[in-house]
Amino acid sequence: MSLIKKTITGLSWSFFDNFSKLSINFFIGIVLARLLSPFEFGLIGMATILIAISNSFIDSGFSTALLNKKNCTQIDFDTVFYFNLLSGSVFYLILFFSAELVSEFFNESQLKSIIQILGIGLIINSLTIVQRTKLIKRIDFKLQAKISVISSIGSGIIGIWMAFNDYGVWSLVFKTILDYSITSGLLWSWSKWKPRFNFSVQSFKEMRSFAYKLLLYDLIETIYNNIYLLIIGKYFSAVELGYYTRADRFKNLPSQDITGIVRKVSYPVLASIQDDIPRLRIAFQNLIKSTMLVTFFLMFMMFAIAESLTILLIGQKWLPSVIYLQLLCFVGMFYPLQALNLNIISIQSRGDLLIKLQFFNKLFAIPFIILGIFFGIKMMIIGMIIHSFISYCLNSFSSGKLIGYPIIHQIKDISPAFFISLIVGLISYLIGFILPIPYAWKILTQISIGALIFIIFQEEKKTKEYLFIKNLIIDKIKGKEQKSDYF
Q1: What 3-state DSSP class applies to 70?
Q2: Residue 267 to residues 107, 173, 246, 263: CA-CA distances in angstroms?
Q3: Is residue 155 part of a domain?
Q4: Burial of 477 from C-beta contacts in 10 A (0-12 / 13-18 / 19+)
Q5: Cα gap 168→69, rounded to integer Å
Q6: Together in a domain, 202 and 80
Q7: Are 111 and 102 in contact (CB under 8 A)?
Q8: Neighbours of 129 (CB within 10 A)
């Protein structure tokens, strides 16, 4: 299969997978947010910190090591599987016995039992890391799409039923565990790969030389991403953390979630041409331009409709989260740029450079975190915006040196998409500010006018990235195969 066909097929199924899962979870999240309070979402946010850090240790960079290794054997997969399973069991025990200390730290007695139950998900997830990796390596997202839809619907129904019956925070806990369980069960049932009783010390050492660098990178990234939850939970309250996590969830939809689709598909594709630098550079340049064309537009539109969207979907009780969401939109704009540039560094097997970048990037965040402790959450998010820009500059400068794509060229390539999206966002915001109509009609008007202006401009300019996305959508609707030299 050609590179373009593999990319388009992978993007299509990955988009379906993520869009379906996100749409279902988004709807379920709205229902749960109406039934539950910010306090209960805040409690889950506190527990999420330890779960996320533990998952980094459980994987330890071995899934990416398998993706980077060109000729993986059954022994390689078996070795990683048993390492993941052992790590998952060990970290569950650590969480189980440290849960009381965590609850005392946050001064929330319920956290102990929440963490002890949620921690079971570590073992469940460790059983399926290799299966997921094999599917990603083959750029095969069809099976994952089916499993995602089934697990999201099944766990969501149970979560909503529990919330209706006044189970409170436990509706969120058991929804999460059930999602893990259904996903794991279906992957084991439908995936062709099954582990054998093999463990190779040689294979482990070979992959560890690359994986440990990624572990340090991922660990620093995970701690940084969750440090804000810890700070808000410790120095403010579970309610404020609930407002923040809901705003962050809305922001992630057009930022991290879409980037996740692109990263998941593009990594194995770009890795397959890692030695052909000119081709890699062109493919990455086109990837950045098309991704940011969509991201900038979506993030500015999210800023414009933030208040109406929040009140319409989850109610007036979540109104304090609106300002957090609007500020986080600017953080979200930089996420794809940071992530995709780091992908290039990883593809070039520069784990040492990844760790250095992570260390310095996160070092710059410390003053802004301290600022937030003393001056509030809004000031903390403003610091996140500044820090995100600094991180992007460092990441793109480093990746640019590896493939000959300087940061100044990258900024030049994405600037047109940024400015037209800014204009569209401001117009849409003013429309929402001026029109005294119901929230649903206001959102529909803002999105329609904003999209129309954006499309008219792009049709006039006919940029390569816009035409690629447009033709991709049209061809998929008509059931045609995409023919392009875009990648």
Answers
A1: coil
A2: 42, 32, 29, 6
A3: yes
A4: exposed
A5: 45
A6: yes
A7: yes
A8: 24
Residue 243 lies in a domain: no
Q: Taking the alpha carbons of 424, 471, 405, 291 in that order, is the dihedral positive or negative?
A: positive
Cα distances from 370 to residues 218, 228, 362, 440, in angstroms, run 23, 11, 13, 39
- Domain for residue 239, yes or no? no
Task: Tell me the Cα Rg of the chain.
Answer: 22
Q: Is the same domain home to 110 and 63?
A: yes
What range defines the domain where residue 95 resides? 1-226
Backbone phi, psi, residue 274, to 5°: -60, -25
* 117 & 67 share domain: yes
Q: Are 95 and 116 in contact (CB under 8 A)?
A: yes
| Among candidate residues 188, 210, 226, the one where a domain is terminated | 226
Q: How far is CA 363 from CA 148, 227, 340, 345, 387, in A?
A: 36, 13, 21, 20, 10
pLDDT (tens digit, 9 = 90+) per residue, 205-244?
Answer: 877 777 777 777 778 778 887 888 888 888 888 889 889 9
Global pTM?
Answer: 0.77
Q: Are residues 221 and 312 in the same domain?
A: no
Q: What share of the chain is helix, strand, coil (3-state, %, to 5)?
A: 85, 0, 15
- The DSSP 8-state label assigned to residue 350 in this structure reads -
Section 269-286 average pLDDT: 80
The count of C-alpha atoms lying within 13 angstroms of the C-alpha of 160, restricted to the half-sphere facing its C-beta, is 15
Specify whether 148 is located in the same domain as 267. no
Q: What is the structure's pLDDT at 119?
A: 92
Overall domain count for the chain? 2
- 179 to each of 156, 248, 426, how far by Cα in Å? 8, 21, 39
Residue 246: inside a domain, yes or no? no
